[in-house]
Amino acid sequence: QMVDLRNVSTVTEFILLGFEQSYPSTRTLLFTLFLALYGLAMAMNGLIIFITWTDPRLNSPMYFFLGHLSFLDICFITTTIPQMLLHLVVKNHTVSFVSCLIQMYLVFGVGVAECILLAFMAYDRYVAICQPLSYAQIMSRQVCVRLVGTSWFFGMINGIFLEYMSFRNPFCRGNHVENFFCEAPIVIALSCGDRLFSLKVIFADTIVVLLSPMVLIVTSYARILTSILGRASSSGRGKTFSTCASHLTVVVFLYTSAMFSYMNPRSTHGPDKDKPFSLLYTIIAPMCNPIIYSLRNKEMKGAMLRALGRDSLAQAESV
After folding, report:
1. Fewest CB atoms within 10 Å of the CB: 222, 228, 277, 300?
2. pLDDT digits over 296-315, tens only?
């Protein structure tokens, strides 16, 4: 449908509806819940960053990647949740056009960087388990730094591209966003011009960004599974499965929610369906990542106890 762009008013701000239509008691409950989850996520990820960067016993590439994953989680969760908490207690839910643009760019950039980093973490586990004699040489400190830098680089570059596709058209269908942050498919639906083309491009980009790392993850763990079933002892299998299960749980949390938000047709979406999945990958996944890794890893639990000044308990935990 053709639109006369001369009659399109310039949008200078967006209104994030979020939980605006909820009862005041419901908003109070949500504020308390999300504030607790946000505080827990920040504390747990912050603790992991601290111990992986300061504890000399955690100097392997796995913990180097884990520290950067926690840093990405902190960046990711901070782009959306503080604003949502503010909107739960104030009546003004407007955000400027520039703020919406910056928020969407950070969500794209950090989210893509995390997907790529998870793939590199799977490759690290593959090398450690299937090529242990060459592990130190293959996953040297310099290589690990380059892999982390690569994830950041592609995340930021991809964010610029997706940002352009989201804001390439003028807006002519209002400025009310049916979510608690500026999510790309919802914002694109408010624009005029060829919205379908932008959605198709983002869909194709999501396939590449999500499925390409997924192929590396599946391939790595398939080879790991073949290797440990063929030569590992029962105790060795249990330890290996525990480590790999932690990583796979994190991957499932992030990938399933992101796929639903960006790879489903918009006709199947709605506020009641979008918000739960948006919450899953914006706050639940960043909160669960450190819990999953720490609870299933004795070295992490011991390092956390040492960081909290409980050396005797750390020694007991390592036994």
Report:
1. 222
2. 567 777 777 777 765 444 44
Q: What is the dihedral of CA 221, 226, 227, 230, to 10 degrees?
A: 150
Handedness of CA 150, 151, 156, 162 (dihedral sign): positive
Show Cβ contacts of residue 287 under 8 Å, excluding neighbours closer than 6 positions: 37, 40, 41, 44, 77
Taking CA atoms, 40 is separated from 24, 56, 223, 291, in Å, by 24, 25, 35, 10
pTM of the complete model beyond 0.85:
no
Per-residue pLDDT for 317 more than 50? no
**What does each C-alpha distance from 32 to 19, 27, 39, 94, 283 come to in angstroms?**
14, 9, 11, 22, 14
Crossing angle of helices 298-307 and 311-318, rounded to 10°: 170
Contact 159, 108 (CB under 8 A): yes
Q: Hey, is 259 helix, strand or coil?
A: helix
Phi and psi angles of residue 16, each rounded to the nearest 5 degrees, phi first? -90, 110
**Which pLDDT value is given to residue 144?**
94
Tokens encoding 207 = 């396939």
End-to-end CA distance of the chain: 69
Contact by Cβ (8 Å): 13, 94: yes
Taking the C-alpha atoms of residue 126 and residue 130, their distance in angstroms, rounded to an integer, is: 6
Least-confidence region, from 6-15, 55-64, 72-81, 86-95: 6-15
Strand partners of residue 171: 191
Q: Count of alpha carbons within 13 Å of 78, Cβ hemisphere only?
A: 11
Whether residue 269 contacts residue 27, with contact meaning beta carbons closer than 8 Å, is answered with no
The reported pLDDT for the residue numbered 272 is 55
H/E element, 253: helix 234-263
What amino acid occupies position 134? Answer: S
164: which 2 tokens? 């352009």
Nearest to 72 by CA among 42, 113, 126: 113
CA distance 123 to 125: 5
